């Protein structure tokens, strides 16, 4: 229901997200206005939502995830020691060692994260978001290259400027990693180009000489 949807967005902003000052929420609160979609689209841009206004389900999931993160941030001391009811009897050491064991794939924040990552990596949309996690975009050459052990120095991601903001810290970090990997591939390509230039210069700098023809060249 359109009215319920608009009321839901206003409730999230008023009670949890609170991105706008109270006096600036008038256009969003005017849910019966014909201009409400434009106000909502502006609101999505202002909170850095990665989805379009037509992607309503993804937008709802993402805004709920944002609200949860902000709620936790405002009450960190209250929630930091809380554990899910089903996990109270689990071994905390094993839980810390395997953080993905208790991952809730039905969590709206998780769904929104998958959709945002799919947009970032330009992976084709699918009705089942779990299917997108199985998409294999690597070529055989890339897989073979990735399987080779490679030593290197640790990289401090915070020292590398991404240049844009996805609105999510984890997605920003993933984008930084992808950009650094892309830069590494460009450097390898430049190295190969330099080697080719050197090889050509070696041939040009050492021509064969034919004294009988009075010419220098090949």
TrEMBL record:
This is RNA transcription, translation and transport factor protein. It holds the Pfam family RLL. The lineage of its organism: Eukaryota, Metazoa, Chordata, Craniata, Vertebrata. It comes from Pedionomus torquatus. It comes from the Eukaryota. PANTHER family: CLE (PTHR15924). The gene is Rtraf. Belongs to the RTRAF family. InterPro entries: RTRAF.
């Amino acid at each position: 229901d359109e009215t319920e949807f608009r009321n839901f967005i206003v409730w999230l902003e008023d009670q949890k997200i609170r991105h706008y000052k109270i006096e600036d929420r008038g256009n969003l609160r005017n849910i019966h206005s014909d201009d409400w979609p434009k106000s909502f689209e502006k609101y999505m841009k202002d909170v850095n939502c990665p989805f379009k206004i037509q992607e309503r389900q993804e937008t709802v999931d993402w805004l709920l995830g944002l609200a949860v993160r902000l709620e936790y941030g405002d009450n960190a001391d209250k929630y930091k020691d809380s554990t899910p009811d089903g996990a109270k009897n689990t071994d905390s050491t094993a839980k810390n060692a395997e953080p993905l064991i208790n991952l809730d794939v039905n969590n709206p924040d998780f769904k929104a994260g998958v959709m945002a990552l799919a947009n970032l990596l330009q992976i084709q949309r699918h009705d089942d978001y779990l299917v997108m996690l199985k998409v294999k975009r690597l070529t055989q050459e890339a897989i073979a290259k990735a399987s080779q052990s490679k030593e290197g120095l640790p990289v401090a991601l915070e020292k590398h400027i991404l240049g844009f903001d996805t609105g999510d810290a984890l997605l920003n970090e993933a984008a930084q990693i992808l950009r650094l990997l892309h830069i590494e591939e460009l450097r390898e390509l430049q190295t190969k180009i330099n080697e080719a230039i050197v090889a050509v210069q070696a041939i040009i700098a050492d021509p064969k000489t034919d004294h009988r023809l009075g010419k220098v060249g090949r």
